[in-house]
Amino acid sequence: MAGDRHRIVGKPIRKVDGPSKCTGQTLFADDLSFPRMLWCKLLRSPHPHARIRSIDTSRARNHPGVVAVLTGRDLPIPFGILPVSQDEHALCLDRVRFVGDPVAAIAATDEEAAFEALRLIDVDYEPLDSILSIPDALDPARPPIHDYGDDGNIHKLVSLEFGDVEGGFAEAKEIIEGTYFYGGNTHLAMEQHAAVAVPEADGRIRLYSSTQTPHYSHRALAKVLEMPPAHIRVIAPPTGGGFGGKTDPFNHEIVVAKMALVTGRPVKICLTREEVFYCHRGRHPVLMGVRMGMKSDGSITALHFRTLLDGGGYGSYGVASTYYTGALQTVTYDVSNYKFESARLFTNKPPCGPKRGHGTPQPRFALEIHMDRAAERLGMDPAELRLAHLVPPGSLTANYLKVGSMGLGECIRKVVEGSRWKEKFRQLPHGRGVGLACGAYLSGAGLPIYWNNLPHTGVQLKLDRSGGVCVFCGETDVGQGSDSVLAQIVAEVLGIEPIDLRLVTSDTDLTPVDLGSYSSRVTLMMGNAAVQAAERARELLSSAVAGKLEIPPTRLVFADRHVFDAERPEIGMTFAEAVQTAEAKFGTIGTVGSYTPPPSAGRYRGAGVGPSPAYSYSAAVAEVDVDPDTGWVRVQKIWMAHDVGRSINPVLVMGQVEGGVYMGLGEALMEEQVFRANRNGVHKFPSMLEYKSPTTQEMCDVTTYLVEDPDPNGPFGAKEVGQGPLLPVPPAIANAVYDAVGVRIDEVPITPEKVLKALQAKDRRYGPADLPPVTWPPPLQVATPRQGGDGRAIGRAIGRASGGTTSTPAAEPARVDGRVTK
Amino acid sequence: MMRLPAFTYAAPRSIDEAARILAGEGPQAMLVAGGTDLYPNMKRRQQSPRVLIGLRGIRELSGITGIPTTGLSIGACTTLTDLSTHRLVVESYPALSRAVRTISTPILRNMGTIGGNICLDTRCNYYDQSYEWRRAINFCMKCDGDTCWVAPSSRTCLAVNSSDSVPLLCAIGATVRLAGTHGHREIAMRDFYNKDGIRYINKQPDEIVTHIALPPVNGWSATYHKLARRGSFDFPVLGVAVAMWRDPDGTVLDARIYLNAVASAPVEAAEARQALIGHKPTPDLIAHASHLASINAKPMDNTDLDYAWRKKMVRVYVRRALNGLS
After folding, report:
1. Same structural domain, A436 and A489
2. Which of A313, A354, A261 is nearest to A99 (CA)?
3. In a 3-state reduction of DSSP, which class is residue B239?
């Protein structure tokens, strides 16, 4: 694996699924159709918060074409992605928690009939006081949306201290404070969620769903339908984008499966765009308070970070999101002492969850603007300040994250040079400016979502005498190119071409479990499993071929569909002959590989969120024009350098970088979920026309630099790229606006009216005033590695819920209906 | 996906036949040309006509005739693409060509027609929503309800005229030709609109817009400035159209300024016009006129972008439009 002598890995070859997508042959979930198939529609709540007194479905049942109607009583078992928040029902049982919460389902012979029958369902609601903002949710006098959580509408409260933060502030020469807000936004994947359930003759069920995580949907289906998982097959067809919006098990998946079981007929649902806005699970709106102590050389002696997350109506990934708003502040610049306090709140809005960057773009926005402020205060260049205090490679952070390879310095140098930063920063004419920001992200979460000691992914190979190789893996290509990564890695190791492989993926019956396309885990984890499976196959072939050729196996080379002697290349055979030789010697050839991340160093409660086998790094410079008359911001260009460890396919990596820039640009300038609090909490504009995202006309030029510093934990050294490059974009733009016109916009989206207000404001700033008061519990004290800590908590009683000292949010037992289950 | 309600589609071959069907079917019928406005509305159940009368098969409704020195006549079913790329329009009415090119997207302009654009349903983000969404706010005055949620004390609907072609056509003095079972009539574009988001055009139920007549090109110049979030795929949240007639020495003989997307009808800035007439447009005069133009604009919180900011932008955009012509 050493060196650069790869023929397929690292090459910009065509995406394996490219031709079928370009020619329209790819079948997405909504393209599937089966004989006698029924169409399903969901009736959704018109109230943000209400009790359901009764539901009368009799008129709907009598509507022509209607075959079945379901309500919450038909699916009473709760589910949810995290074991600690099993708070959703496929159809609301007795309470609705946001406008759009589903309360009943209809299956009919055509979609029109199902749609018409929705209006014939009579639901008697008792409206309840609705909670629509962070201050509302913190008010103990307001009614709780759920009967679980840490206090009232506080779903999750976290308080952690690593080292001695007050001591760190005492040491500081400068203390810099700031308050920031990151508006909520949604994924806007092109494909709307669709699912088709097909009943099988023996009572089993098959579900096709546009999901990033068939494994988790599989688990939720088994739980709610009370069926053995082995009798349920979940298949994720090629998915038209997810970005985190398809990583939860969803109510509509469970509903169509139940409908298929009830009716004995295939049942399909395809959500409207408006319904996708209600599924949401997008970026949490986060209000943040930052206090940073620095020495005069810019070293960070103390960092105190507080975050308040507006979570929406359900838990979703929220507990993990909460920890993620605090986890990765430490992996870029060295932080000696760190305190993190956070609360996630329930509100009567569609549930928030993971969107590209999951919980980290919000604090990164705050931190990178804060660094810009710090550089100004210290009279340092923002690039130099960052470069002087980078976390060294191979180190352990204050909160016990193991940093392996660390290419951020090279990333900063690339964009500084490429953008001619030194000639531009603070030197461009009024109205034009440049801004710098950085970011970091995980290459897969170190711990699984539900506690287990099993591998996170598996790859299985079947080789036969034809010379073809069939690759089985539960991974799910959501457009990011994981199929291509899988094919390139296996083809590289076996010396064949990607077209010689047949990929069978994301099918819970046929493929080994892979946890799914989230947390940027697939290339690293699946890639390592694929290397292992392919190397095992190569060993079998080598052994057989070496025996036949009577040479040592170590001399064999696998390349160009041949296996031959490195010293006498004319001696050898085709790959197909090699497989035949091995099959004759060993019988049927099949191998497996799997991957489990290395153990993490943190042993405190909460240490489960943040560890990763490897961290990717990015740096960006944005150049913007700001119109002082209107406040309009136009991003002209972004220079982005990304430390990907090693590209398996550089064109796909650059595509991910550019996609991240595009999405970051939309979040920075225009995308925002807005609800009308005085109009029953409705989503202001659940449509792609009025929820504004950039078109090609707003997209800026991008120059991408790939920094390749191979990570020992990555396959061929590869790290993630799917999420990280989004992170520096919003703060780089905010910093550039400051350079252009001298105003700080401490919240996204950076809309023209905010810029204009800041231009007219005395303090030349637009942003939140302060955080509303929260009674934080005393922090869990953890001694840092520098203090000689061992990763365990030293203060405050721990393990209160689980009784374990090594518990993590993912490892906490589930609380369901008051019972504790595991 | 969202589905259309059931309807019958009639495909007349002549204006007379279309007018007869329309008169015969009464209020249950609607006209459709490109359908880029109507079909999405029907999917959201904002309109559920039992009969749709398709106008695209009527040959006399398509195409552009005339010459610029005496004026052009544009068939109502001329697509926005054909209009904006027509040689005579590009050469002699360049501001109209540019204004039409800002409508929606290239693909939708291939379907959408100029007749459809001048009859564009007024827009409001309390109204342009699905049936279920509107049910959550107990519907609004414009459809199925009785309150205007933009301003609950308002007795008229405040939905916004969001056409990009209308303010320019008003400014240059275009007229609308209509046909009905009782004959034909012609009305100035500026008189075609009402400040009422529900009855927003002066068209009888049995009338069909057949043509838009452009005035002769006789020395005026015009411009259109659009404020929208994006460079494509957006309705205006402010449209400023100016047509100006000037003496060879630079003195303004006439300057008609129309604002759109700030009310249910295009708003003429009459005071600004009076301030400009008879003077040379100095920067101070332009600033003054821009201020006067902004007074009557009262954008509401029912479109994209902050309404107080949109109000501030009227002055900026009028100034820029006037500067562009001076």
Report:
1. no
2. A313
3. strand
What is each CA distance from A184 to A378, A687, A737, A750, B305, in whole angstroms?
Answer: 32, 16, 21, 13, 16
Listed as ranges, residues in chain B with pLDDT below 50 are none
Helix ranges, B34-86 (H): 38-43, 80-85
A-contacting residues in B 6-65 (Cβ below 8 Å): 6
Question: Which of B 139-158 lie inside 8 A of A, CB atoms?
Answer: 149
CATH number for the domain that contains residue A116:
3.90.1170.50
pLDDT score, position A820: 32
- The tens digit of pLDDT for each residue in A408-429 reads 999 999 999 999 999 999 999 9
The dihedral built from the CA positions of residue B130, B135, B140 and B143, taken in this order, carries a sign that is positive
Task: Please report residues of B whose CB lies closer than 8 A to that of A631.
Answer: 309
- Cα A277 to Cα A187: distance, rounded to the nearest angstrom: 9
Q: Tell me, yes or no, whether A779 lies in a domain.
A: no
| Contact (CB<8Å) B2/A630 | no
Per-residue pLDDT at A126: 98
Asked whether residue B83 falls in the same domain as residue B197, the answer is: yes
Does residue A14 lie in a domain region? no
pLDDT tens-digit readout, B312-322? 999 999 999 99
Question: Looking at residue A4, what is its pLDDT?
Answer: 57
The ipTM estimated for the assembled molecules is 0.96
Q: Are A85 and A319 in contact (CB under 8 A)?
A: yes
Q: How many Cα atoms sit within 13 Å of B210 on the Cβ side?
A: 19
Element (H, E) at B317: helix B307-325
> Do B306 and A694 count as a contact with CB atoms less than 8 A apart?
no
Q: Which of A274, A630, A695 sits opposite B231 (nearest CB)?
A: A695
A813 lies in a domain?
Answer: no
Give yes or no for a cis peptide into A749 (omega within 30° of 0).
yes
Rounded Cα distance between B126 and B142, Å, is 9
DSSP secondary structure letters along B220-273: EEEEEEEE-SSSSS---SEEEEEEEEE-TTS-EEEEEEEEESSSSS-EE-HHHH
- CB of A206 closer than 8 Å to CB of A235: yes
Instruction: Say what the pTM is.
Output: 0.96
Residue B141 located in a structural domain: no
Structural domain harbouring B89: 60-119+160-214
Number of CB pairs < 8 Å for A and B?
Answer: 74
Helix (H, G, I), strand (E, B) or coil at A248: coil
Tally the C-alpha atoms within 13 A of residue A638's C-alpha that lie toward its C-beta. 36
Token pair belonging to A683: 């989503």
If one counts every other C-beta atom within 10 angstroms of the C-beta of residue A499, the result is: 10
Q: Are A207 and A173 in the same domain?
A: no
Residue A453: what pLDDT?
94
CA atoms A569, A574, A575, A580: torsion sign: negative
In whole angstroms, give the CA distance from residue A332 to residue A328.
Answer: 8
Q: For residues A653 and A746, state if they share a domain.
A: yes
User: Does residue B8 form part of some domain?
Assistant: no
Torsion angle of the four alpha carbons B302, B308, B314, B316, in this order, in degrees rounded to the nearest 10: -140
**CA B2 to mean position of chain CA atoms:** 27
CA distance A455 to chain B (A): 39
Q: Read off the pLDDT band of A813 (50, 70, 90).
A: very low
Q: What average pLDDT is seen over chain A?
A: 95
